[in-house]
Amino acid sequence: MASKKALNARNLEALGAERLAELLIKISTGKSGARRLLRLELAGAEGTAELAREVRHRLTMIGRSRGILELQKIRELEDELRVLRKVIVGRIAPEDAIEAIDLMWQYMGIANPTLDRCQDHAGSVVDVFRAAADLGDTARAARPDPHKLADRTFEALTQNAHGQYAGLIGALTPALGQQGLERLKQRMIELSNTPLAQLPEAHRPKPPWPFSEMADADEAADRRRLRTARAALKDIADAQGDVDAFIDQHDDDERKFSKIATGIARRLLAAGRAEEALKATEAAEYDEGVNPAWLSYQLEDVRIDALDALGRSDEAQELRWSCFERSLSAPHLRAYLKRIPDFDDIEAEEKALDHARRFHNRLTALSFLVSWPALDRAAALVIEEAGGLAGAFHEVLIPAADALAARHPLAATLVLRAMIDFTLGQRESTRYKHAARHLLDCSSLSPAIQDFGTFETHEAYEARLRREYAREPSFWDLVA
Q: What is the DSSP letter of 5?
């Protein structure tokens, strides 16, 4: 039988309403967050309208506040905002969607002044305000006039100083419909064509603090005006399924950037325009500062899909092999082998594994062979590279040691030693507990190794460590 002293709902109910009320008053004294939560509950008990009024009051008060917030206050504010959002979506929206959508707009509308108050911590707080999905769900239920919804969306996007409205157009597309999307499109085209000086103050995109206080704030706002319009027009084009409108938002030079070319090609391919998609990828150039591995998994994937769609399967296969050969991409190799006739795929796999075994980046090779899995080859690679494995890369070596332990205990031991040697050699004291565990694992593996060959036995290895690192008691204490 559960103790009657255990802190749970059943035992608390037994105290009675009067006693619980006294306790809540006592516990919430001096704790503003708790008192606000209680006020919300009391308002909710009076009905949805009263609850909505309480939420609106709190949002108004938060939006009017101007003092700079320290970290602790920021955390308290985050908690309150999450509660308010949950109340709007979970309690008010099911009863009164029209009231809920208005509250959601107010909720998101206080983002700029609130985030400006957070200053250095704004980046971590903005996620609290990224509520586009909630706004979209509420708008579908409320069914607002599409033109009015488009106008309000336009107003919001022009004040998107901190990126709090990310994904807004996509979330609101069902509620906007074609009428709303078309109106929003025309307003964004007008925004892109209207000089900043001729725009009403409310429609001038405001950079976030502290850029809004810089001498060139107008220049920054004008750049944001163009970026806001173009970004919205891209999202609208996607919502309307208009590939050409999306492409038109990029000039010829931009279409050569690999990321942009990939996005264009993927949309063309989805629209059944494979030939144009392939041309878009062929025109692309590597972006400066972009990891080539990203291109292998993005640009070349859509190129492969385009070749397949055009019936040029042999070329698609060549490109899959090229991707694997260059980076040991397992997904590309699996896709390549899947398209090879039975029995021939065995020979092709052996060829691929031999290539991986000889790959210039030994850690990449080891990771691939372990995950494929091809443990015999992985073990051979470890023994060949013993003494040269980069022990700092524990994210690769730990899974390798675990995978090799059962069938290849010597190779697993050498992998563990690489990490131990690095940790002790670099005096990485924060990893001593891991190195100690690795040494104990080596001891456990030792009886399964029939022949250490040219390598030290475990006893000899540990004895040498104790001599060379005798002045590391904090490590040896963990081993004992």
A: T
